[in-house]
Amino acid sequence: MNLKTTLVLVILVIVAFSKISFGQNNKHPNVVIIITDDQGYGDLGVTGNPHVKTPVIDKFANENIRFNKFYVSPVCAPTRSSLMTGRYSLRTGVRDTYNGGATMASNEVTIAEMLKQANYKSGIFGKWHLGDNYPSRPNDQGFDESLIHLAGGMGQVGDFTTYFKFDKSYFDPVLWHNGETEAYEGYCSDIFADEAVQFIENNKDNPFFCYLSFNAPHTPLQVPNKYYEMYKDIDPTSGFEKDDRPFPNMSEKDKEAARKVYAMVTNIDDNVGKLLSKLDELKIADNTLVVFMTDNGPQQRRYVAGMRGTKGTVYRGGVRVPFFMKMPNSVNQNKSIETTAAHIDILPTLADICNVDLPEAKKIDGKSLVPLIQDKKVDWADRSLFFYWTRRYPELYYSMAVQKGKHKLVGYTDYNAEIADFEFFDIDKDGFEQNNIVENNNAVANDLKAELDRYYAELINSENLKNPQPIIVGNKNENPIILNRNDAGGSRGIWAQEEIYGKWDVSIAEGVYNVKFKFVKPIQSAGRMYLETGAIINQTKNTEVNTDILEMKNIHLTKMDCDLIPFYATKGKNIFPFWVELEKLD
Q1: Would you list the domain boundaries of the chain?
Q2: Are strands 341-342 and 70-71 parallel, antiparallel or unpaired?
Q3: How confident is the model at residue 1 (pLDDT cuts 50, 70, 90)?
Q4: Rounded to an integer, what distance in angstroms lies between the CA atom of residue 76 and that of residue 69?
Q5: SS3 state of residue 23
Q6: Roughly how many angstroms between the first and final C-alpha of the chain, as a whole number?
Q7: Radius of gyration of the CA atoms of the chain, in A
Q8: How far is CA 64 from CA 57, 291, 326, 337, 473, in A?
Q9: Residue-wise DSSP of 116-161
Q10: CA distance linking residue 119 with residue 438, whole number of Å
Q11: Rounded distance, CA 302 to CA 311, Å?
Q12: What is the predicted pLDDT for the residue at 330?
């Protein structure tokens, strides 16, 4: 054996050992998805914002694949359900961000469950917002490791472990680690990123899926002072004097919000840098797919690259977001893709890249983006995207849109509206959606209206929407169980009100229960505590005052699917509890 042959063999052995020691599997690359909350398209340096400092994300975007026409839903939970399943949110049962409409059906197949085919370990760190009780929690839906806050945001009513911390809810929080409460020290974004990095370290030898889902820069706008100091003196409206794109009018409140948002985004940028550095340190970056995206447009008015609308609208400012992707085992990735893509495309793309089968018996609305990335010719001209957003359930033709190619039809009108009442845009010529051209394009607009009608008729009849996922009470996987305000239905817009009608959709296992009722404020007068479960009503007299917790012990409940309706009746008022805990004793 000559020296050259020997050297080749040595190199091959070293390469093989390296792949074994670091658990690299080209067939099943690692996956990291980073998503931020309420960070709009314009909240990055790479998208033209002269104020916000995001060097890590900017560099990542410039060196990798940029989908420049990427769309999501107008609000949080619908986007996340579509990301997780590749399906429109209404198919999954998700129809709202609260009002009991942010619980995804347990029969849905998530990315984490899909990747189990190839023995991926999956972890989520941050915001879930698809159900806080069994069987809809992350650990019930395929995740091996879960560190989350509850509901739609820390400091919100559904996240009762941080709600009462008010303006300090993002600092030293009590979070939910694999379904149990655990106290943490530090700032929430740093905690979530640190735990994600630890998860990657722990699972570096096998394929993993890390879902780093920052709750920032969602309100409440809380950020460490060292980051706020970077922005406290800026004018967020300056620097656009030579920019002829539309710019929103910003109040002083909007300007201060922008300063805090930019500070929160810079903190996120630092944490993204921490995670990417860990991939390099572990020598697994080349075999890891990384996505950076946001979940919808900005909640407040600020720079959004000239687009119309904010979070909660179906205009582009509410639904177009940055989307950057680093492919595994690839070179020369610096590429911009102009084909329209969306959140529903992520799951089928991962199935393609990670070599696993798509979920069976589920209609997948998205398409794999791999052919676009590989510069293969694809004909997506006929593909349309559907958008909607209203509280509780979709409202026909109101805050509803369909986009197909360069054409977009927007409805902010009545259920029986004629085509002239809609807005119609050519977004290739009018990406800012300023010029309604419906009057001269009735034929094409009517075609899109027919498509909108088809979407609405199909999605509003989705099985998981008609038969929503109940919270399961009395199951060994979550006992005791706490029902929170985010998942309560009843009166429209139920939040932290005291005197309001509320209920939870539950499936109760027969047994004997102790029940606790927590109130927003201490009870000030005697009354009666009621617990209605279907036709079974339990009530008890209460004379104790200045307490915010009442209890009913040893209640026998039969097996039933019903509305669980609790209220405290006093002085002609019915006060709805802030949360309800049920513990099955047998």
Answers
A1: 26-373, 384-464, 471-584
A2: parallel
A3: low
A4: 19
A5: coil
A6: 74
A7: 25
A8: 11, 10, 5, 11, 46
A9: GGGT-EEEEEEE--S-SSTTSSGGGTT-SEEEEESTTSTTSTT-HH
A10: 51
A11: 12
A12: 72
Encoded tokens for 348: 């089928």
Q: What is the CATH number of domain 384-464?
A: 3.30.1120
Nearest to 212 by CA among 290, 267, 156: 290
Cα-Cα-Cα-Cα dihedral sign, residues 223, 229, 235, 239: negative
Residues 124 and 211 sit within 8 Å (Cβ to Cβ): yes
Q: What is the pLDDT of residue 377?
A: 82
- CATH number for the domain formed by residue range(s) 471-584: 2.60.120.260
CATH of 26-373, one of 3.40.720.10, 2.60.60.30, 3.30.365.10, 3.40.50.300: 3.40.720.10
* Sign of the dihedral defined by the CA atoms of residues 418, 423, 426, 427, in that order: negative
What span, in angstroms and rounded, lies between the C-alpha atoms of 122 and 209? 5
Give pTM, 2 decimals: 0.94
Instruction: Return the DSSP state at 357.
Output: P
- Look up tokens 């911009």; give the residue: 336
For 402, the 3-state DSSP assignment is: strand
Query: What strand order describes the sheet that includes 70-71?
Result: 320-321, 70-71, 341-342
Letter string b/e over residues 131-149, b meaning 16 or more CB atoms within 10 A of that residue's CB = bbbbbbbbbbbbbbbbbbb
The string of DSSP letters for 305-338 reads TT-S--TT-SSHHHHEE-EEEE-TT-S---EEE-
Hey, is 231 helix, strand or coil? coil
Distance of alpha carbon 33 from alpha carbon 213, whole angstroms: 8
CA–CA separation, 415 and 401 (whole Å): 13
What are the pLDDT digits (tens) for 245-272? Answer: 999 999 999 999 999 999 999 999 999 9
